[in-house]
Write a structure and sequence with these properties.
Elements: E1 22-25, E2 34-36, H1 60-73, E3 77-82, H2 92-105, E4 110-115, H3 120-129, E5 132-138, H4 144-147, E6 151-156, E7 159-161, H5 163-183, E8 187-194, H6 203-213, E9 217-222, H7 239-249, E10 267-269, E11 272-273, H8 275-285
Parallel strand pairs: 1-3, 3-4, 4-5, 5-8, 8-9
Antiparallel strand pairs: 1-10, 2-6, 6-7, 10-11
Bound molecules: iron/sulfur cluster (2 copies).
One iron/sulfur cluster is lined by residues 12, 23, 48, 81, 259-262, 270.
Length: 287
């Protein structure tokens, strides 16, 4: 993978850039290949998103057209990410096609994606080839006994797995995918959703395992209880608690503390979001 791009221009991985370099999330990935027990699919993927539907889904060609309009309006965009509204690797053809087209047209941009990891090993080499340099994998446990309670099902191709079998498969793919990303020279962030009473006691194990794989940053995010899920009555972890967790995890890995939990169609600087302003343009480009 080419290292000639300026990695310091990614505002999520370099906090110093958050007021000068922006990101756009292209909503080209509607399907998901797993069912997290904290997710209600009426909303965006919480891998990277706060609840709130994306205002449209784009094809790869539409995404390129939309990107031209975004760059004309907001030339400070330095990062193109794909973060849903489902999982980018459950829509691998569209994700890779979009990245390939944009990398040809705008080679100065950084390409980033966020995934649950199930489909990562199968596509990681292609991702590197089309210029993806930053990958986020959501890992909520490194013990299948714990993750079996976090995921309702895992679908690999046409086969559906539940319980321990699904949890073991997902974990093996996450570990393999991250290991390969690092071999290819990518920058890897791990997102962990802190679920009180479920994985809270297990966070250091996750951090240690990720460190051993060479992960660059850990982003501990509090569960946002969503109506209609089994965690709807769990109390959302507050900032003070998350800060304390991050202080502990920092003994193992650098912590991301400025994540905005952006929507799958987010646009702008992290300090100056323009998602609402661009919604009409996004919608027009999707038709
Ligand atoms: Fe929802 Fe994302 Fe989990 Fe898929 S990976 S079920 S979209 S939170
Ligand atoms: Fe960056 Fe967090 Fe927004 Fe992703 S969700 S683009 S990591 S601030």
């Amino acid at each position: 993978m080419s290292q000639s791009k300026d990695f310091s221009k990614h505002p999520c991985f370099n906090k110093e850039a958050k007021g000068s370099c922006g990101r756009v999330h292209l909503p080209v990935a509607p399907k998901c290949n797993i069912q997290c027990n904290f997710c209600n699919r009426k909303y965006d993927c919480v891998n990277e998103s706060r609840p709130g539907v994306t205002s449209a889904v784009l094809s790869p060609a539409q995404a390129v057209h939309y990107m031209d309009k975004v760059l004309a309006k907001e030339p400070r965009i330095t990062v193109v990410g794909i973060a849903g509204p489902g999982d980018p690797m459950a829509n691998a053809d569209k994700t890779i096609d979009t990245m390939r087209r944009l990398n040809k047209k705008h080679p100065q941009l950084l390409f980033c994606l966020s995934t649950n990891g199930l489909g990562l090993p199968a596509h990681v080499d292609e991702l590197a080839e089309v210029g993806v340099s930053h990958v986020t994998v959501t890992v909520n446990a490194v013990d299948p006994e714990i993750s079996a309670g976090i995921y309702a099902w895992i679908r690999d191709g046409n086969v559906m797995y539940k319980g321990l079998e699904g949890a073991k498969l997902l974990l093996s793919r996450q570990l393999e995918g991250i290991r390969r990303c690092k071999e290819l020279g990518m920058v890897v962030k791990v997102n962990t959703i802190v679920i009180p009473g479920v994985n809270e006691h297990h966070l250091e194990e996750i951090a240690k395992t990720m460190k051993a794989l060479g992960v660059d940053v850990l982003n501990c995010m509090g569960l946002k209880p969503v109506a209609g899920t089994i965690y709807e009555n769990i109390e959302e972890p507050q900032k003070a608690k998350l800060d304390a967790i991050r202080d502990t995890m920092e003994q193992h890995l650098p912590q991301m503390r400025h994540c905005q939990r952006c929507r799958a169609d987010a646009v702008g600087l992290l300090t100056e979001d323009r998602t609402k302003e661009m919604a009409g343009c996004l919608s027009a480009c999707s038709k």
